[in-house]
């Protein structure tokens, strides 16, 4: 299992992402990561193992060094993430909840295209890095995420963080949930609604299977309609 949480606010979102991700701790016991963006510092990231400690203890020293009004967090039972990449789409971060049954096939596909994997997870390629590569094959984030949907066998829900937005996509068959929360001046997206109440968010709506949305501090834009 894994869990995702992201927030974008007119002010700082660091503590919302920290606590919102922590409320997903029951969904993973191996790895956790946070990534933020601010105009002053650019992208910032921390990843820690949870095998010998709790999320709050591992990340509380990092929080004072983070800044930004947009951020994502992930609790994972598998790979280290979020992944930060630079491509023709710009610089962005990716966090996923995925189960990719044909990952070896897609790895070979990328190697034939002379692409290079730099992240290793349990002696194999990192699935989230693979997803980032597939996204980067698109002309924009929408077509890139549709490329992920079309190529993988299994499921993948994901969050993409850019300099001014969070792009959220629920896997095409709706196997894993994503929902959006709202409070004054901020939006959040999460794997579970239980992350919302203690940090002041109310449920705005649920994403449908295969739906892609762009979330800014000012609102939500649908980039792809949900499947049936």
Question: Overview of this structure, please?
Answer:
There is one protein chain. The chain is 21% helix and 39% strand. With 228 residues, the chain is of the alpha+beta class. Strand 11 and strand 12 (186-190) form a beta hairpin. The strands form three sheets. A seven-stranded antiparallel sheet has the order 3-2-4-1-12-11-13, covered by helices on one side. The chain has helices at residues 14-22, 55-63, 103-112, 127-136, 141-151, and strands at 2-9, 31-38, 42-49, 70-76, 83-87, 90-100, 120-121, 124-125, 154-161, 166-169, 179-183, 186-190, 202-206, 212-216, 219-224. The relative contact order is 0.18. The two termini are 25 Å apart. It has five helices and 15 strands. The model has no long low-confidence stretch (mean pLDDT 94). The longest helix has 11 residues, at 141-151. The protein has one domain: Aminohydrolase, N-terminal nucleophile (Ntn) domain (Glutamine Phosphoribosylpyrophosphate, subunit 1, domain 1), CATH 3.60.20. The radius of gyration is 16 Å and the shape is globular.
């Amino acid at each position: 299992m894994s869990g995702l949480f992201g927030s974008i606010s007119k002010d700082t979102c660091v503590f919302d992402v920290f606590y919102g991700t922590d409320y997903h701790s029951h969904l993973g016991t191996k790895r956790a990561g946070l990534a933020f963006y601010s105009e002053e510092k650019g992208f910032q990231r921390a990843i820690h193992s949870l095998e010998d400690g709790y999320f709050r203890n591992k990340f509380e020293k990092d929080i004072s060094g983070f800044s930004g009004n947009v951020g994502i967090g992930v609790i994972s039972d598998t790979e280290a993430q979020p992944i930060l990449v630079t491509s023709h789409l710009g610089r962005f971060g990716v966090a996923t909840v995925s189960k990719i049954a044909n990952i070896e096939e897609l790895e070979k596909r990328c190697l034939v295209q002379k692409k290079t994997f730099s992240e290793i997870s349990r002696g194999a390629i990192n699935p989230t890095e693979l997803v980032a590569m597939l996204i980067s094959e698109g002309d924009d984030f929408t077509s890139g995420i549709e490329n992920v949907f079309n190529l993988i066998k299994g499921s993948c829900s994901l969050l993409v963080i850019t300099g001014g937005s969070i792009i959220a996509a629920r896997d095409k068959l709706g196997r894993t949930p994503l929902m959006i929360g709202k409070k004054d001046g901020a939006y959040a997206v999460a794997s579970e609604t239980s992350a919302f109440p203690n940090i002041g968010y109310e449920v705005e709506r649920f994403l449908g299977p295969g739906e892609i949305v762009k979330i800014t501090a000012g609102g939500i834009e649908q980039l792809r309609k949900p499947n049936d």
